[in-house]
Each structure stands twice: as structure tokens, then as C-alpha cells.
Specification:
This protein has 285 residues and is an alpha/beta fold. The chain has 2 domains: 13-85, 3-Layer(aba) Sandwich (Rossmann fold), CATH 3.40.50; 103-244, Rossmann fold (3-Layer(aba) Sandwich), CATH 3.40.50.720. The protein is 46% helix and 14% strand. The protein is built from 11 helices and 7 strands. It has helices spanning 22-33, 47-56, 73-85, 103-127, 157-172, 174-180, 201-207, 214-226, 246-251, 253-257, 259-275; strands at 13-17, 37-42, 63-67, 139-144, 182-189, 234-238, 241-244. Helix 4 (103-127) runs parallel beside helix 5. The longest helix is centred in the middle third of the chain and has 25 residues, at 103-127. It holds the Pfam family adh_short_C2. Keywords: Oxidoreductase.
Length: 285
């Protein structure tokens, strides 16, 4: 384990969401042992566990439990307010509206990721009853990601996060898709002039950067959906370049992670294959 050094002489304040159990609880204990103020943010059912952790600490004055649902914006603002009132840190309260709940950002995640999850689940359920084609497939689903599903340079947090989620969705669905005989693949377009790019399309063109056409992306979607060899692939479309990138990523895993970690990941994956999938825990509370 690496050494822990506080950058300055005064205590730091650490907020751990989900801090009443598991890794979160031990993180609370460890930061507290190193002189930090600690805040456990967790749901109401975790109150007893949180208070038990605080009681076990050497200095309970440096610890706080605050009931928090991290999916609720106002609850999260209450968490930071309570931390301030405890005296753990100081900040200016925002009354200008700048820190309003980012509902538009949530909509992007709902459409791009939740919408894709709903579509994929229902499509796979419907397709499992189909008569297999000559190649053995009962259906084909194309999930639309983006180069933003692999890169994050634009800083558009909600869009990039959601498209990374789509790539993860495609990867996570492969075992079940294979069982049902459904091919699930991704098409990841680069810059494509459409309504959502109107704010910078002209400047992009002036810069002379490559761009897709909607026709080219559509052709790639059709080709990928009907290609029997495409299973768990991701086809990136970047102007004149059309390239499969998931297989390349897999082939380079050892170079990327190092052989030792890559082998551990492989063995972990085999464990879950042998188990028939990930066994979910029982609901808490």
C-alpha cells in the first residue's frame, strides 16, 4: 500500500457516498485514521451501520453521517450544506440559480443510455422467438454510440458519459445475446453534420476537418447489421475511414494492461462464465 501524506497541516474533509458498508466503510475508517474529517453519505436504512462506524472511530467529532439519496439533487445539496454546518469546510451558498438541478443533462443520459437499454432488452426478448437465419442468428441489434463513447475531449459530460455507457452496454450484453442467438453490435460515428452539430458545423468545415455524411453512416449501420460475422463488434465511422475497433482493443489487452493484470481479468471473466453470470446480492433495507 502506498504512503498517505496530507498535503497541508490542516485536516482534509472526505465525503464517501455509500460509506456505511463494504469498501466505502473501510475508506471512511482509513481516511479518519490519517486525520481527516469524514462524512458518511448513505440511505436511511444504513443509518445504524453508519452510526456504528462513527462510534468505533477514535474521534467522533471528526465524523458525520448524513442521510442521502445521491440520485436526488436537493438531497445532495443538503449533504454539502450539512457538511458546512458541521464546520468541516466552508463555501459560499449559491442562490443565483447556477447550481440548479441539471435536468437537461439527465434527459440526455435517459435518451442515449436508458433508451438504449430499454430497446435492447425488449428487442432481444422479441427476437429470441424468431426462426434462426441460415447463419444461426435470430436477430440483429445495432446500438449507436459515438467516437465520444471512446474519447472524452469535447467535455460534454452528459453526452460523453451516456455514449461510454452504450459501449459498456454492448459489451455487457454479449453473453446473453449469444445465448439467445441475437447479434449485438455498435456503430460509433465521428462528426456527422446533423441538427445537434449546427452550433459548430460551419467552423468545423472551415477548419478542413473530415466529416461523415448521414448516408455513409446509414450504409455502415445496414452493413454491420446484416454481416453474419459481426458479433460484439464496434464499427467506427470517421469520414472515409470505417474500422472495427473492439476486436483490436481485445487483441491489445495485454499490451494495454500488462500481461499479469490481463491474465487476472481473463480468469475473472472465466469465473463468471462458469457461474453462468453475475449473481446479484439480495436487496438491502
Amino acid at each position: 500500500m502506498s504512503a498517505f501524506i496530507l498535503p497541508s497541516g490542516r485536516p482534509k474533509t472526505v465525503i464517501v457516498t455509500g460509506g456505511a458498508g463494504g469498501i466505502g466503510a473501510q475508506t471512511i475508517r482509513t481516511f479518519h485514521a490519517h486525520g481527516c474529517n469524514v462524512v458518511i453519505a448513505d440511505l436511511s436504512f444504513a443509518k445504524d451501520a453508519a452510526e456504528s462506524i462513527i462510534t468505533s472511530l477514535s474521534d467522533t467529532d471528526r465524523a458525520l453521517y448524513h442521510e442521502t439519496d445521491i440520485t436526488d439533487w436537493q438531497a445532495m445539496r443538503g449533504l454539502f450544506r450539512a457538511t458546512k454546518e458541521k464546520g468541516f469546510f466552508d463555501f459560499e451558498e449559491d442562490d443565483s440559480g447556477e447550481l440548479e438541478e441539471p435536468k437537461e443533462a439527465y434527459k440526455i443520459v435517459d435518451v442515449n443510455l436508458k433508451g438504449a437499454m430499454n430497446t435492447l432488452r425488449l428487442a432481444m426478448h422479441a427476437m429470441q422467438s424468431n426462426t434462426p437465419d441460415a447463419d444461426g442468428a435470430r436477430g440483429s441489434v445495432i446500438l449507436i454510440a459515438s467516437t465520444s463513447g471512446y474519447f472524452g475531449g469535447t467535455g460534454v459530460v452528459s453526452y460523453i458519459s451516456s455514449k461510454h455507457g452504450v459501449v459498456g452496454l454492448a459489451r455487457a450484453s454479449q453473453r446473453k445475446a449469444g445465448e439467445l442467438g441475437v447479434r449485438v453490435n455498435v456503430v460509433a460515428p465521428f462528426f456527422t453534420p446533423t441538427y445537434i452539430t449546427t452550433g459548430y458545423s460551419a467552423q468545423w468545415k472551415e477548419r478542413g476537418l473530415p466529416a461523415n455524411t448521414v448516408e455513409g453512416v446509414a450504409e455502415t449501420i445496414v452493413a454491420t447489421s446484416t454481416d453474419a460475422t459481426r458479433k460484439g463488434h464496434s464499427v467506427m465511422v470517421a469520414g472515409s475511414f470505417v474500422r472495427e475497433i473492439e476486436a483490436a482493443r481485445t487483441a491489445l489487452t495485454k499490451e494495454w494492461l500488462g500481461e499479469n493484470i490481463a491474465n487476472v481479468m481473463t480468469e475473472g471473466g472465466k469465473f463468471f462464465d462458469d457461474m453462468g453470470g453475475y449473481t446479484l446480492p439480495r436487496p438491502r433495507g
